[in-house]
Amino acid sequence: MANITYSEQTFDCHNDETVLECLARHGVELPSSCRAGVCQTCMVKAVEGTPPKDAQTGLKPQLQKQGYFLACICKPEQDLSFIDPDDSALPQIAATVVSKTRFNDNIMRLRLKPESDFEFQPGQFLNIHREDGLVRSYSIASLPKQGYLELHVERVKNGKMSNWLHKQVAMGGKLNIDGPHGDCFYIDDNPEQNLLLIGTGTGLAPLWGILHDALSKGHKGEIHLFHGSRSSDKIYLVDELKKLAELHSNFFYTACISGQDNQGYTAGRANEVALREIPKLDGYRVYLCGHPEMVNSTKKKTFLAGASMNDIHADAFTLSNS
Ligand code: FES
After folding, report:
1. Residues 178, 88 contacting (CB under 8 angstroms)
2. Which residues form the FAD-binding FR-type domain (predicted)?
3. How distant is the alpha carbon of residue 252 from its chain centre?
4. Element (H, E) at 212
5. Burial, 145: exposed, middle or buried (Cβ in 10 Å; 0-12, 13-18, 19+)?
6. Going edge to edge, which strands form the sheet with 251-257?
7. Element (H, E) at 21
8. Is ligand 1 within 6 A of the CB of residue 232?
């Protein structure tokens, strides 16, 4: 018999009982629907103990790696503490600004050093909290071994957080962050698989992290990155990515400009160019990051081009006018 801990209460779970049944027997309700491991309504996240492998059936590998499991098909083999991910507010920690450099007039590379443990996967995102309650999300471009959190911050017209970070936050300044969040990251479960990375604007940040993570782990399949901007003065890290493509024979980089000043670049939107150049995506793992419209429409198109839904990972930016 295993004990399960949820919502600060511990319950004894009978040998042939699922976590969902155990909670119900103790009068605790967890959202559920099919009760057969299909709809994923009852998905929870282990914070202590390891859920049985078959309780993670059908979940994306990225979720499995983070300890997510389905309560309706989980018969725990050991004590297990878990949370409902929808209820979990992660604690805020302090981070110091250790570097601010510009990619161009609008986009800044901001590096933060967290003051306590902050485990993450490159490509996940964190939230920055300002003292007045303003919160914005930024994707992480760095690798854990680098010892800092790298964010790419685009200055948005009238954007309160982005202008504050660009103009007022100084080197050595302290920020409050929480995270990491999201399942848009690389895992090395299939090093031969081809990867397709499509991003617009600072959607390059998570893709930069995913790309470097994959290369540092010796990914053998092809990695295709299509990065797009409206104009040539907004696209960034072009030389660095070209050099990386020279160094790694399995990495292919295409910089796309959708506006008129496209000399020296591939003309067109990154998602359209990508699907034109790689029309069949059977067996590919796809990462989509950037503007929500691009991400949502490309999700459908990459699925129709043959990528499995479980292999499509998306990080759409939250649009904010202030
Ligand atoms: S209730 Fe549907 S997967 Fe558990």
Report:
1. no
2. 90-187
3. 21
4. helix 204-216
5. exposed
6. 266-267, 251-257, 223-229, 195-200, 285-290, 312-316
7. helix 19-25
8. no
> Can you tell me the ipTM of this complex?
0.99
pLDDT in tens, 24-50: 999 998 888 888 888 788 999 998 999
CA distances from 71 to 5, 40, 76, 77, 141 (A): 12, 9, 9, 13, 33
User: Does the C-beta of 35 come closer than 6 Å to ligand 1?
Assistant: yes
Tell me the C-alpha distance between 175 and 242, whole Å. Answer: 33
Query: Beta partners for 141?
Result: none
Contacts of residue 88, defined as CB under 8 A and 6 or more positions apart, other chains included, come to: 45
Tell me the residue type at 301: K
How remote is the CA of residue 307 from the centroid of ligand 1, in Å? 25
Do residues 48 and 4 make contact, with C-beta atoms less than 8 angstroms apart? no
Q: Which domains does the chain have, with CATH numbers?
A: 2-83 (3.10.20.30), 93-181 (2.40.30.10), 195-316 (3.40.50.80)
pLDDT in tens, 235-280: 999 999 999 999 999 999 999 999 999 999 999 999 999 999 999 9
